[in-house]
């Protein structure tokens, strides 16, 4: 039933597909490695800029905040870096100034939580 020519064509096509798939995986892994390296370099630059902007105490406080609330610390870092890029920060940010900035951000981003309890009524419960 199996034609030898047809089987040979199938084998060649399978090898071609495997070769393309292998090259595709290698290219994807290279792109992924390049992206990871770029992210790592960007984070290093970010940390270096923060170390130039913040005093040692302020950096320590921000690191402690990052342990508990990483998204909040990231937001504060973004605010500080933007201010530095616009030239609004002339000297190193002290711990007291960082605390006041955190308080301002807290008042701006306070979230109201509301709890609503809905009780399910059973079909058998009768109010009358």
Automatic annotation (TrEMBL):
The upper taxonomy is: Eukaryota, Viridiplantae, Streptophyta, Embryophyta, Tracheophyta
Which family does the UniProt entry place this protein in? Answer: Belongs to the PDCD5 family.
Q: Name one Pfam family in it.
A: dsDNA_bind
UniProt feature, compositional bias: Low complexity: 23-35
This entry carries the following GO cellular component terms, namely: cytosol; nucleus
Where does this protein come from, organism-wise? Quercus lobata (Valley oak)
Protein name per its UniProtKB record: Double-stranded DNA-binding family protein
Q: Where is this region: Disordered?
A: 1-46
Q: Which GO terms describe its molecular function?
A: DNA binding
Q: Which SUPFAM superfamilies match?
A: Double-stranded DNA-binding domain
Q: Where is the composition biased (Basic and acidic residues)?
A: 36-46
């Amino acid at each position: 039933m199996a034609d030898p020519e047809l089987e040979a064509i199938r084998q060649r096509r399978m090898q071609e597909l495997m070769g393309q798939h292998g090259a595709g995986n290698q290219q994807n892994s290279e792109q992924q490695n390049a992206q990871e390296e770029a992210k790592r370099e960007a984070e290093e630059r970010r940390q270096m800029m923060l170390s130039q902007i913040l005093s040692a105490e302020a950096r320590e406080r921000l690191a402690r905040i990052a342990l508990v609330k990483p998204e909040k610390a990231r937001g504060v870092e973004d605010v500080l870096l933007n201010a530095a890029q616009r030239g609004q920060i002339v000297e190193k940010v002290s711990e007291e100034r960082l605390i006041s900035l955190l308080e301002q951000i807290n008042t701006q981003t306070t979230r109201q939580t509301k709890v609503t309890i809905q009780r399910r009524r059973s079909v058998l419960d009768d109010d009358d």
